[in-house]
């Protein structure tokens, strides 16, 4: 039995985004300008705790990979006893993962990646701070560019300090540049459905560039050559069905959720 | 009684630096090029877990503010029962701090700062990855520029991805630019002691620019006008005594620890 030391940290809030499910969430922040809202849990929602934050354009979010399969399994099996949980975390440690960026076949070390399957299921994302809102004395932060599924638990926020955090000359291994964008086309059926949904106010026309951009990033689990298969993605109020043919993304259907 | 949800994360290793004590540790990473070593705890020390990391020039470290006073008090009072610990964290939440950057008088929100007195006592630092060493099948990472006291517990490392993490145009509130550097002079006594320590191999001449740089950043808790007072700092194998007069740092004494 392997035992490691551990620390317990509170969840200070939850992040709300139009990403209803993990599928479709971009693999890094700021690739798609979706709007999100952070709601804080008391006592962390007091306006005083955010004074001075309005001077910063960007924020770091440290959040929990709460849809991590291992985590779910562990808490279901073990209950909330943290001692058992930790032991299990060390015992179930898998040192390598297959990043989608490398086609899903090549393995690399988990610490050379930002994979969710890591000892501490913590994610790190930089987002734009749009505005700070106070409703009934409670703070909500409006953010842009989160790569988080709706309901993600938040552990901490820190202001982005350009002089120490921005290292433009950093060499970034296999993640050298932003992922390439695929062309996105609508089939005739999908185009018609899109116009219907807009006229019914299920879909707003502001959301179209977001949906196209998410698909242009190719949200499939790993690059696949199977051009026959269709994929489904939920985003805000709609379901989108799409397929990929010779690097082109075809939106085949868009319907209300 | 306030109760919040929480998560427990393992400590995967410890960071070793020449910063013997908190006093003197720079307030952001990469201000002083000190060398550090990360030693990982089993099972997180396997070389396979680091494969591919050699392609990255910089790393994020997520670490524990283990010298946080509140934390110490809480764990002493409460034992290791995490339920009580969390309750206490929420109850002892102080929404504002006085950052040294603003002279130690002005208060701002804890979430507008990187203060250690925050709900989750987690720090975030970017460091340079110098090299990966494997000794007896266990990984050690050599890093440069850590702003961490010796023995800091490590929660996670993530590769620095320039295309998403580097935002040079970010606006950074009151932390707009790197802290100004003060001129540093040695008194005659300190100069003589320095030469003695070098000849006795207690001090290496490579360490002198590091010591001068740490002092140039003015490590005092908050800017003070009291020119009479002396301050002591321990660094690696030496103790340094210094004073400040009209913005000039005077090294008055350097002795073996």
From TrEMBL, chains A, B:
<feature type="domain" description="TsaA-like">
    <location>
        <begin position="9"/>
        <end position="169"/>
    </location>
</feature>
<dbReference type="Pfam" id="PF01980">
    <property type="entry name" value="TrmO_N"/>
</dbReference>
<dbReference type="InterPro" id="IPR036414">
    <property type="entry name" value="YaeB_N_sf"/>
</dbReference>
<dbReference type="InterPro" id="IPR040372">
    <property type="entry name" value="YaeB-like"/>
</dbReference>
<dbReference type="InterPro" id="IPR041369">
    <property type="entry name" value="TrmO_C"/>
</dbReference>
<dbReference type="InterPro" id="IPR023370">
    <property type="entry name" value="TrmO-like_N"/>
</dbReference>
<keyword id="KW-0808">Transferase</keyword>
<dbReference type="GO" id="GO:0008168">
    <property type="term" value="F:methyltransferase activity"/>
</dbReference>
<dbReference type="InterPro" id="IPR036413">
    <property type="entry name" value="YaeB-like_sf"/>
</dbReference>
<comment type="similarity">
    <text>Belongs to the tRNA methyltransferase O family.</text>
</comment>
<protein>
    <submittedName>
        <fullName>S-adenosylmethionine-dependent methyltransferase</fullName>
    </submittedName>
</protein>
<keyword id="KW-0489">Methyltransferase</keyword>
<dbReference type="Pfam" id="PF18389">
    <property type="entry name" value="TrmO_C"/>
</dbReference>
<dbReference type="GO" id="GO:0032259">
    <property type="term" value="P:methylation"/>
</dbReference>
<keyword id="KW-0949">S-adenosyl-L-methionine</keyword>
């Amino acid at each position: 039995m392997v035992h490691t030391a551990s620390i317990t940290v509170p969840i200070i809030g939850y992040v709300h985004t139009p990403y209803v499910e993990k599928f479709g969430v971009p693999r890094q922040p700021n690739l798609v300008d979706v709007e999100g809202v952070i709601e804080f849990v008391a006592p962390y929602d007091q306006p005083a705790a955010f004074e001075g934050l309005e001077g910063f354009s960007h924020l770091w979010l440290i959040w929990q990979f709460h849809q991590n399969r291992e985590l779910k399994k562990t808490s279901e099996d073990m209950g909330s006893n943290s001692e058992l949980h930790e032991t299990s975390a060390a015992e179930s440690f898998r040192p390598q993962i297959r990043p989608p960026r490398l086609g899903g076949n090549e393995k690399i070390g988990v610490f050379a990646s930002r994979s969710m399957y890591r000892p501490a299921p913590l994610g790190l994302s930089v987002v734009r701070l749009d505005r700070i809102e106070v409703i009934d004395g409670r703070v909500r932060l409006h953010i842009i560019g989160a790569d988080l599924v709706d309901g993600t638990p938040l552990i901490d926020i820190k202001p982005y300090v350009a002089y120490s955090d921005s290292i433009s000359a950093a060499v970034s291994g296999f993640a050298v540049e932003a992922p390439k964008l695929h062309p996105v086309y609508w089939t005739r059926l999908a185009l018609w459905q899109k116009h219907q949904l807009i006229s019914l106010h299920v879909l707003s026309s502001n959301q179209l560039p977001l949906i196209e951009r998410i698909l242009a990033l190719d949200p499939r689990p790993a690059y696949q050559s199977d051009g026959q298969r269709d994929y489904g993605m939920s985003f805000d109020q709609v379901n989108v069905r799409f397929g990929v043919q010779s690097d082109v993304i075809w939106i085949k259907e868009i319907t209300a959720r």
